[in-house]
Structure formats: C-alpha cells, structure tokens
Amino acid sequence: xxxxxxxxxxxxxxxxxxxxxxxxxxxxxxxxxxxxxxxxxxxxxxxxxxxxxxxxxxxxxxxxxxxxxxxxxxxxxxxxxxxxxxxxxxxxxxxxxxxxxxxxxxxxxxxxxxxxxxxxxxxxxxxxxxxxxxxxxxxxxxxxxxxxxxxxxxxxxxxxxxxxxxxxxxxxxxxxxxxxxxxxxxxxxxxxxxxxxxxxxxxxxxxxxxxxxxxxxxxxxxxxxxxxxxxxxxxxxxxxxxxxxxxxxxxxxxxxxxxxxxxxxxxxxxxxxxxxxxxxxxxxxxxxxxxxxxxxxxxxxxxxxxxxxxxxxxxxxxxxxxxxxxxxxxxxxxxxxxxxxxxxxxxxxxxxxxxxxxxxxxxxxxxxxxxxxxxxxxxxxxxxxxxxx
Length: 389
Known about the structure:
Among the domains are: 7-100 and 311-377, no CATH class; 198-287, no CATH class. It has 16 helices and 9 strands. The chain has helices spanning 7-12, 17-27, 38-51, 56-64, 70-73, 80-89, 93-106, 173-179, 182-185, 201-209, 248-253, 283-292, 294-306, 317-340, 347-357, 364-368, and strands spanning 121-131, 146-155, 160-168, 191-193, 213-217, 224-229, 237-245, 258-264, 271-276. Strand 8 (258-264) and strand 9 (271-276) form a beta hairpin. The longest helix has 24 residues, at 317-340.
C-alpha cells in the first residue's frame, strides 16, 4: 500500500502546533478569518522556502499542481492575492514566537560541539540585506539606499542562532547587542566573541559584572595602558599583558583590568591582538575563541545562499519580517531533523533532497537513507492495477 503522507506533512509534524495556535490567539491573527488561516499562510511561506519560489505566482502555481494533497496539510486556498494580504496585515510576531518556541524545543537535543574549554561559546555579529529604498521606504540606510540588518547571537556549540534582532540599516551593531540583554539571557561563565564594532566600555562593564567573558580584537587607535606581562611559555605568543583603558572617559566606564594577548597565527604568520576579561584560558585558547567567530560569518553566508531572505514576496515591513522569521523557522526545522534522525550528510544536501521530494508520498526516514545523487529512486510506488475478468 502506498504511503499516504507527503514529506511536507511529515516535516510539519515537527512544529509545535499547540503553541503556534496559542501565538495566533495572542495576536488575533485569525480573527474574522473564514478560509485562509495563519497556519495556511505558514505552509505557503514554508513551501516557498523549501522549494526556492521567487514570487507569489510561483507559490500559487506550484501548490495548485498538488491540490489533491492539500487535505493532509490543512491548506484551503493558495490564491496569491490572499497570501499577499495576509503577509501585509498579519503580525510577523506569530512566526517570531514560533521560531523561539521551536528553538526551545530543539536546542537541548542537538549535539554540542566540544572545544578545548568548557565554557559555552557564542558569536555576536550582524549581516546586512540590501533593499531598494524606493520599494522598501521603511528600511532607510542612507539617503539613496535601503537595508535590513539581522543582529544575531549564534551558539557555536550547536550552530543555531540563540537570539535574532531585525532592524533598519542605521542601527549600530553594538546598540542591538545591548538590546539583546545578554547578562539576563546567558549563563554565568559564557564567552561572547565579537569584532571591533562592539567596543563599548560601559556595555563591557555590564558583561563583566554578570560574570560573562568576552573576546574582541583591538583597534589601531585604541588607547591601552600596559600594567605588566605574564610569563610566556607557549610558542607563537608574543605577549600576554594585564592592561587598563588608557583614556579618561573610557577608564571611567570600564575601570577593571583587562587582558591583552598578542599571538602569531601559525598558518598565516599574521600577528593578532585580542582583548578579553578572561584570565584563566591560555593565549592560544583565546586565539581559538576568536577564530570560532568565523562560524557566524559562515552562518550568514549559508542562509543568504540557501534561504529566501534576499528577494521578498512583499514590500511592507510586516511582509518582509514574516518571510525572514519563517526562513529562520525552516532553518531550525532542517537542523532539528538532521540531528534527530542522525542524517550523516550536510544540511545543504538535506535541503536539496527535501526540495525535490516535498510532495512525494513516502516515509521521510526512507528518503534520508539516500543522498542527492540517488534521491531520484525515491518515487511514489506505482498504483496496483485491478485485474480484469
């Protein structure tokens, strides 16, 4: 007997639908709705993410070809005008809340990468999504350019985002970092690594007072007073000093002693200088921590290349943020399935396989035993013919 559930429907079972319905109720998203519910909207946007659809017409055409399978998904309409209206009028907060609920559901189940230290490690950075100012007039960046920023705190152990704040292009990186309220969100002993855009001594003081460690690069014009040097016993380490902020106003904001580590990268032979409030880890571990910051750059590159967050299905702020939050939900969904099913191949390969088989009526576990070169075998079994007498 043929498997009656599509791959798409099996993906949806991983979503916390009970909580999703609660979020819909909180935002009154389905108030006065008779046909196209918020769940219907979520399915349409997830379908666009999974299959790489470029427009509302593409979504309508693609879903219309599988109308006989809608009953399994809870879809009753795919009209592009209806999807457009929902994207513009229904609060994106429903999908934002769904992201954090799914994050809570899966982050403790995803295996954690290990480092040479036991502290939880997070990378903090932002990426810019360029927008046409004449179409997206709410996303002002300069007088002639528009942009949207995604400020992200990435858990380096799981490679999934812990916090995301969206803003227009004018908001500074460190301003968004303060809004994340890391002292309340992170456990004591956590390490946050960031680049020079996050140098703010008053904010550093709050992190230090909350027993959160940070690692950053020094600026060329940064005023630092050296107090003394540690004994250097490790090859490749030029200096390991205790320092304080040399300028008066900076010292008033951060009067504590910092650690300045200067090392030579063994591969490139380049010299790097780091500032941190952690005096326990070795100089090479401090360098290792900053090298791990590159993971958030790889995360930004991956979502821009493989999710639909650079071209949008609507021009309003609500439509854009709805699409972005559903994209993040889809990323979490793929990561969750990959680790829960112990899928041995890459996340990219998983998304490609899902794209090609999304409406096939077969078991998801069977599909995961294949790869992108053998997934063509994954077809719906032929319907048996009735014997004629």
